[in-house]
Design goal:
It contains 13 helices and 16 strands. By secondary structure, it is an alpha/beta fold. It has 2 domains: 278 residues, Histidine kinase-like ATPase, C-terminal domain (Heat Shock Protein 90, 2-Layer Sandwich), CATH 3.30.565; 113 residues, no CATH class. Helix 11 packs parallel to helix 12 and helix 12 packs across helix 13. The longest helix is centred in the first third of the chain and has 22 residues. It is elongated. The structure holds adenosine-5'-triphosphate (ATP) and magnesium ion. Magnesium ion binds next to helix 6.
Length: 406
């Protein structure tokens, strides 16, 4: 019998194989021919020594097992951090991630290893953005006491020789998307519906006509990740208790995502794998502007007045270096409450300086600015923005649009 190849060409093979392995309660990587990092991370999470759904790992020596060993499989399963970060320009070792962040330093470490030179800036920014969103989701939504596992791989061998790809995966054995979402959205009745909704803009932002978003999340994380896959001829595989979703634009930009609900084997937790051909990434600023436009087109109302001003602030403005709190949503929210909002209430000027921030997620900006922008509008006190890269400006325009648009 042919051994399965656990690659993103056919992620269903991975789930089918995993279903057999789970029934047995033990796993041997010698049963498979090739396993890409997304599959190895998925197995490692389930094999964690202290895990509830624990798989026993059998000794194995062939290709896939050797690769798993090289990227720190045994260490991560045993609860240790890998002794080295990985191989520059090639693989990032399996790494456990736990807690509620901040995620920016972990994401930065991973992209620095995968993109050691400054060439390919666009894909580097894009991957960093994806990593921050996925890591944050584990911390905020998975409820997995063991946290998640992350790894990434650059592949320019075999079928990828003419078009090298980078693949990242973040996986947990937590409650899954359906369970996480349905309390907030009782109208969602199935895991498949939950996955589709999770990929839509503003799913957790309470963004319905007449409302305008909640405190902590914008509900835009997975929307951005899936739009990145679409925009770069990439792939997004999402498997989460009861449903799977697979978007594969590497073949044709017309390919429709495949969604399964209940019938196919699924993953006991949430596994998100993202892959893209580095050469297809193009302009990061262009992609961000495009996604901003897509998100804005779905908003109930457009705003005309701008309370975020992209112009020189008055000299008395309080100058705030935003990078200090980069991607730390809790710090951003606290800063908004303790500094920005009181200052606006006193009708005093604020200058937000975005220097040194090339990647900036909606969740972070939401935590920092959602309430402040609404206050700025109510009090008619503009906030000034300086040194924002075009991609960051696009994100800022989006926050203002939905904060004032409901
Ligand atoms: N690892 C996960 N485990 C369980 N549920 C998840 C996981 N990742 C995402 N979800 C669910 O999918 C929803 C959508 O995720 P998404 O990242 O798009 O938005 P968000 O996290 O709510 O907001 P934002 O990312 O803008 O802060 C989440 O609200 C959550 O219910
Ligand atoms: Mg999120």
């Amino acid at each position: 019998m042919n051994k399965p190849r656990l690659t993103l060409d056919d992620p269903a093979s991975f789930l089918a194989w995993l279903a057999g392995v789970r029934k047995r309660g033990s796993v041997s990587l010698d049963e498979v021919d090739v396993a890409q990092v997304f599959a190895i991370a998925g197995v490692a999470a389930l094999a964690r020594l202290e895990g509830k759904e624990r798989l026993l790992v059998e000794e194995a020596t062939q290709n896939a097992a050797r690769f798993a060993h090289a990227i720190g499989f045994e260490e991560v399963v045993g609860g240790e951090q890998p002794s080295a970060p990985g191989e520059a320009d090639r693989t990032v070792k399996l790494t456990r991630v736990k807690g509620r962040g901040p995620w920016e330093p972990t994401a930065e470490k991973i992209v620095s290893l995968l993109f050691p030179s400054s060439t390919g800036d666009a894909s580097r920014h894009l991957f960093k953005h994806v990593l921050v969103e996925l890591l944050r989701n584990v911390g905020q939504h998975s409820n997995d006491p063991l946290g998640g596992i992350v790894t990434a791989q650059r592949n320019d061998a075999g079928p990828y020789v003419h078009s090298p790809v980078v693949q990242v995966v973040v996986v947990d054995n937590g409650i899954g998307v359906f369970e996480a979402l349905r309390h907030m959205r009782p109208s969602i009745k199935t895991p498949a519906e939950a996955l589709v909704r999770a990929l839509e803009p503003h799913v957790s932002g309470a963004f319905e006509e007449g409302q305008s978003g909640s405190g902590e999340n914008a509900g835009l994380g997975l929307f951005f990740v899936s739009e990145f896959a679409k925009e770069t001829d990439g792939r997004l595989f999402l498997a989460s208790r009861g449903a799977t979703y697979f978007l594969d634009r590497s073949q044709s930009s017309e390919t429709q995502p495949v969604l399964t609900n209940g019938v196919a084997p699924d993953y006991p937790g949430t596994l998100v794998a993202f892959e893209t051909a580095i050469a297809h990434v193009g302009s990061f600023d262009g992609i961000m502007a495009h996604i901003r436009d897509l998100a804005m087109a779905r908003m109930p109302k457009r705003i005309t007045q701008n309370w975020l001003r992209f112009e020189a602030p008055p000299p008395e403005a309080l100058h705030i270096l935003v990078a200090v709190a980069s991607e730390d949503t809790a710090a951003a929210q606290a800063y908004s409450m303790n500094v920005l909002q009181p200052r606006l209430l006193e009708r005093r000027s604020i200058a937000l300086d975005f220097r040194n921030m090339r990647v900036c997620t909606q969740s972070f900006l939401h935590a920092l600015l959602h309430q402040a922008v609404r206050l700025a509008w109510a009090l008619k006190v503009p906030m000034f923005v300086v040194n924002a890269a075009p991609a960051v400006r696009a994100q800022l325009e989006l926050v203002e649009a939905y904060s004032l648009g409901g």
